[in-house]
Amino acid sequence: MRQLASAGAVKRLWAKDETLWPHAKEQRRLITNNLNWLDLPDQIGPYMTRAAALAAMVEREGFRDLVFIAMGDSNLAAETVAHTGTPQRPQRFFLLDSTDPAAIQRVSDQIDFERTLFVFANKSGKRIETHALLLYFLNRLRMQKAAEPGKCFVAVTEEGSYLSELAGNYDFLGVFLDPPGIKGRYSSLIHFGLLLSAVWRLDPQELVARAKSMREVCKRPADGGNPAVELAAFLAAAEASGNDKLLLMGSKSLRASTYRIAQLVGASTSKGGRGLIPVCGGLPGATEGALRGCVAVVLKMRNGEEADLATIEATLKQHRVSTVSIEMNGPEDLGSEMFRWEIATAVASSLLEVNPFDEPDVREGRERVSALLDEYVAKRTWPARTARVREKGIELYAEGETRQHISTLSLTEALRTFLEAMPTGGYLAIITFASSSGQTEAALERIREHLASSHGMPVLLSSGPRYLRYFEQVYKGGPDKGLFLMLTSESPADVGIPGAEYTFGQLQMALALADFESLEARRKLAMRLHLTRGLEQGLAEIEQTILKL
Fold it and tell me: What's the pTM?
């Protein structure tokens, strides 16, 4: 706190002083554009009023379902809203943030296409996943012989973006333009404002008032009870002292919000081999070893379901884990609370001497996807790789650094030696690019629990391709102490992409292979298990194997 006060950090932040963070000359515009996020409390009122008016209009027009499609940051706001029940919400609400054929088919099977409004949210609209889903749903509406299929779509994007051009070409029902140049992770007021006013039907003026109130208290001096600065000091002190794993816990309705915070803090601070590693999804394996090097934040909603959180807080206290508890009064506080976290993260990044607005370690992965798809279309096969182990329908792939650390005598020996390679104070990330279900998610949780308890390490579960938008920068640019276990599987029932020479399942495989190549290129300890008999059976074999370790 003294360091922030002496540096005049609060005054410099609100003056939009880009020298708060280290940056190359060519990054100055990136920082100044992103700092316009601080003005959002004054800008979102008309935006939310228009969103509320559109919501009322589509209800009058007879739309019954709302499908929110996003691959970036807004999907976590949408997931939070979807899990916060309200009698004011007239439509059924679906979130689609995946290229998984099974997930796409599940949504398609539940909706009446001609009475469904599709909201596409993406800053640029150039993401291959977003474009593929847009083509798919447009084609489905044409097959239903919809007279004006574009009138079933709304775009949330930036002015001049590819998505805004598509919206004009297809005559979308509406287009909402974000202020240009602001990263999605610093746009919570836009995302929550849009969704809470349009889906929850909350009063836009109340949401604006809360955002402005939070802004005013976050302008206080560093030593004057500024809640954002206090949070920034907590985060920066944790990282500086070696407690670089941030446990984010929340009640069921706020679980998606913990991932939103994780993406914000992780992607902003994880640069050059330092930063904070977010750990979400509960507290498995709460042993002294698994909690060593951790600090924690617990999110609560007043009058919410807090029994499990009380147990978690008691466990954290027992193991002397430094913990901050945050309670919100209701969903109306979601946008303003995230605004506080954005300020705290930017200020903490200044103490860590990293630029919170860039993502230097994720760009080339996206280029690899296009190259892999081009090769697949030309050859109808993926690049050849040597399986180091083939056993019980599981193929194990490992090269470079990982190949030198593991035994290939059997799957059991390979996994045992892989886990033994864990760096001091490290973590295991299990990244799944495959069609999931309730059964497979439960199996992954059991695997996580067992490994965390038996090996005394945090285990992070990441589902692709959404993980590429949340934690890719953390895994590739943050502290170099992770093990990465990727699980892939062919889609049992694939879905075609109109106009493309590949399917959604093949797109998902390209995303997985590109990410694995990127991890290998950075000499990360990464192993891929390809489950030839499907995810469910493959996980059953993996679960039996790890019980022997």
Answer: 0.94
